[in-house]
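User: I've been trying to design a sequence by hand for this structure and keep getting stuck. Would you show me what you'd pick, starting by listing the structure so we're on the same page?

Assistant: Good idea, let's start from the same input. This is the structure you sent:
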C-alpha cells in the first residue's frame, strides 16, 4: 500500500508538471512517449530506492530521470538523495535550480508545492554546510594555484569561504616547483581556515657588491706597522719568552744542584736522593740553555727586523723561521 502511494504521489507530481518546462533538457515537442515512459519508470524506481534507504541507487536513477526531464518533482527527489549521500553542496545547488524552473503547461499547484518544499529544505540545509577559507603565506595569491580535492580554485576566490561537504578534504597549493599540502576534516556547520605556507626565497646578493668588496686585511700584519715590523714584534715576543723560560729553569737547575751536594761528595754519589736531584739539575740546565739561546736569537732577530724595516709605502715581503740556536729571516726589504 505504501509503495502504491509513492507511485501515485510521484505520478501526480510528474503529470501535474506537464513533463516539460522552458528549461528542460529536451524541448516539449522533442519528448516522445518512449522518453516519458522511461523517465517515469526511472523516477518511480528512484523514489522506491530512496524510501528503502538505498540512497546511492536512488541518486543514480533520479539523476538520469532529471537529466532528461528537469521538472520540480524529479529535482526535489534527486536533491534529497544527494543530501543523504553526504553531497550537501551538490544537493543545495539542486534545490536552488528547482526554484529557478519556470512555469509549464501542467498543474501549477503541484509545481508550486515542489518548489516550496525545495525552498524550505534548502533553508534548513544551508547553515549545516561546512566551509574552508584558503589562505596563503610566504607568497602572493597570483603566484599560487590551489586545488581542493583535485578541483581548481579561482584565484579571485582565495581568501573567501568555500562550501564543502562534511568529512575529510585535501588542499593543495603549487608555486613553481614548491608544493604546500594540507589535510583537514570538517563536521556539520564547521568553518576552518586552510593556511598554505610557502618559504620566501632568499634574495641573491647583488653582483656589484660581490665584485667591489674590499679584500680582508692580511692576518699576519698589524695596521700601520707593516708586515716586517709585525714580524719583529713576534720575534721579540719569542725572545722574551725564551729568556723567561731559560731563567726559570736556570734557577731550578741551581736549586737541584745544591740539593744534590747535600748527599754527594764531588762526583761520587751513593745516596738515591742525591742521584735524583743531580739528574733533575742536569735536565733543567739543558732546558735553560736551549731557552736562553732561542730567547737571545729571537731578540736579536727582532732588532734586525725592526731597524731594517722600510717605510710603510715600500713593498715588503718577509718570513720568520726560528730553530735551535738560529733565527732565519727571508724576504725582500
Amino acid at each position: 500500500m505504501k509503495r502504491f502511494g509513492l507511485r501515485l504521489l510521484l505520478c501526480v507530481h510528474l503529470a501535474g508538471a506537464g513533463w516539460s518546462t522552458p528549461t528542460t533538457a529536451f524541448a516539449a515537442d522533442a519528448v516522445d512517449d518512449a522518453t516519458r515512459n522511461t523517465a517515469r519508470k526511472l523516477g518511480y524506481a528512484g523514489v522506491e530506492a530512496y524510501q528503502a534507504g538505498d540512497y546511492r541507487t536512488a541518486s543514480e536513477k533520479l539523476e538520469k530521470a532529471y537529466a532528461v526531464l528537469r521538472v520540480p518533482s524529479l529535482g526535489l527527489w534527486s536533491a534529497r538523495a544527494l543530501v543523504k549521500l553526504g553531497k550537501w553542496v551538490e544537493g543545495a545547488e539542486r534545490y536552488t535550480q528547482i526554484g529557478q524552473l519556470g512555469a509549464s503547461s501542467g498543474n501549477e499547484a503541484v509545481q508550486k508545492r515542489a518548489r516550496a518544499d525545495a525552498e524550505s529544505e534548502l533553508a534548513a540545509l544551508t547553515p549545516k554546510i561546512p566551509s574552508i577559507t584558503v589562505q596563503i603565506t610566504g607568497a602572493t595569491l597570483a603566484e599560487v594555484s590551489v586545488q581542493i580535492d583535485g578541483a581548481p580554485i579561482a584565484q579571485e576566490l582565495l581568501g573567501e569561504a568555500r562550501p564543502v561537504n562534511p568529512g575529510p578534504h585535501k588542499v593543495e597549493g603549487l608555486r613553481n616547483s614548491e608544493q604546500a599540502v594540507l589535510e583537514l576534516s570538517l563536521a556539520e556547520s564547521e568553518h576552518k581556515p586552510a593556511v598554505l605556507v610557502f618559504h620566501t626565497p632568499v634574495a641573491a646578493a647583488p653582483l656589484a657588491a660581490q665584485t667591489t668588496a674590499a679584500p680582508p686585511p692580511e692576518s699576519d700584519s698589524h695596521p700601520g706597522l707593516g708586515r716586517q715590523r709585525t714580524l719583529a714584534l713576534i720575534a721579540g715576543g719569542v725572545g722574551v719568552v725564551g729568556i723567561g723560560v731559560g731563567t726559570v729553569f736556570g734557577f731550578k737547575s741551581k736549586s737541584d744542584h745544591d740539593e744534590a751536594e747535600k748527599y754527594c761528595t764531588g762526583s761520587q754519589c751513593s745516596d738515591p736522593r742525591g742521584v735524583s736531584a743531580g739528574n733533575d739539575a742536569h735536565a733543567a740546565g739543558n732546558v735553560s740553555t736551549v731557552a736562553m739561546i732561542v730567547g737571545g736569537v729571537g731578540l736579536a732577530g727582532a732588532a734586525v727586523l725592526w731597524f731594517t724595516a722600510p717605510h710603510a709605502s715600500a713593498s715588503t715581503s718577509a718570513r720568520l723561521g726560528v730553530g735551535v740556536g738560529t733565527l732565519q729571516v727571508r724576504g725582500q726589504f
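That's my pick for every position. To get oriented when you compare it with your attempt: The CA atoms of residues 86 and 165 lie 7 Å apart. Residues 1-6, 15-29 have pLDDT under 50 and may be disordered.
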